[in-house]
Amino acid sequence: MSELPLLTILMATYNGGKYLIAQLESILAQTYQNWELVIRDDNSTDTTQKIITEYLSKDKRLRQLKFGDLHGTACRNFSQLFDWACQENKQYILFADQDDIWLPDKIELSLKEIKEDEKVYGFTTPLAKYSSFEFIDEEDNPIDRILKLPAELTLRVLLNENYAWGCTMILNRAAVDLIKHIPPESVNHDYYIALVVSAFGRISLINKDLVLYRQHQNNVSGNVENMGFSSRFDRYFRNTSVMIKPLTQNYALVKSFYEHYSDKLSPENKRLISGFLSSYQSGFFNLLKTLFKFGIFKIGLGKNLVYIYTLFLYRKKVIDAIYKSSKK
Predict the structure, then answer these.
(1) What's the CA gap between 11 and 98, in Å, rounded?
(2) Average pLDDT, whole number, for the chain?
(3) H/E run at residue 264
(4) Torsion angle, CA of 132/94/37/73, rounded to 10 degrees?
């Protein structure tokens, strides 16, 4: 019987004391037990460090990492954790947020699914899996909101929006070797990972809820309150200026990815991304033509209509913001 692989869970923490114990307990209660949890705290000022210290003494599979000098955002924290894991040649990597709850079979099923993909596509193929999840509120109550997730993520889908939440992902060693480093300016580590793996390997869905994804006022990303009709209506038709920041971040991340990997991309993917970036700069109608030419769309007719509307309003302001940031 072959030895069970050691899975490495990377957790970035910052002032997460309110929910951290529930998350740690859910990891300890996993059906698959051959894992290590590596925590990097970003100078918390609440009870987070006290909780970490307590759990370090409870279980030797937990360790606290003092690595790198980047601080200030969740992406920088995860970037440093990822650098360490790559340097240490970790075989399989998962990411844990500090405020979620993992369902008992998350690790077991994630490993099973990615190993099945490795049998089909080979161990040298960069692979990632991501799962569906259930929203919960601050008191662990379920929130009646379901997101439609694609069975597989392609660049055409990802150029507009990411559907792979980091807390649901598992990567194999080939994916880690390919990525090597997550640029800290990427804003979202999971989005960058999804772009890279989709371009050179395969990233696909585990169609089962494996995480209880907590919603509260301090969520870094993925807040369910922003996904409802009334919230979207407010952003798109009343307070439209709030869309400039996410559009700018999206463009900057895709641009960063392209700059890092353009020499390795297939001719088809190179045309796709360069066409998207250049037409974004040249004008709305050129961009619209590119979206239809390559099939670069979000999931759902309504979301696409609203997306095109926001591009019509703010495309130039996004490019201006990118230009200004490049001059700093």
Answers:
(1) 7
(2) 91
(3) none
(4) -90
CB 116 within 8 A of CB 122: no
Give percent of the chain above pLDDT 90. 77
* pLDDT(167) > 80: yes
pLDDT of 1 above 50: no
For residues 205-224, one letter each, b for 16 or more C-beta atoms within 10 angstroms of the residue's C-beta and e for the rest, the string is bbeebbbbbbbeeeeebbeb
Q: Please, which residues have CB within 8 angstroms of residue 139's CB and are 6 or more apart in sequence? A: none
Residue 88 main-chain phi, psi, to 5 deg: -90, 5
Both structure tokens of 109: 């099923």
Structural element, H or E, at residue 254: helix 244-261
Residue 269 has pLDDT above 50, yes or no: yes
What does the radius of gyration of the chain's CA atoms come to, in whole angstroms? 20
Count of helix runs (H) and strand runs (E) in the chain:
12, 8
Average pLDDT of span 195-213: 97
- The domains located in the chain, with CATH, are 7-214 (3.90.550.10), 228-326 (no CATH)
pTM for this predicted structure: 0.90
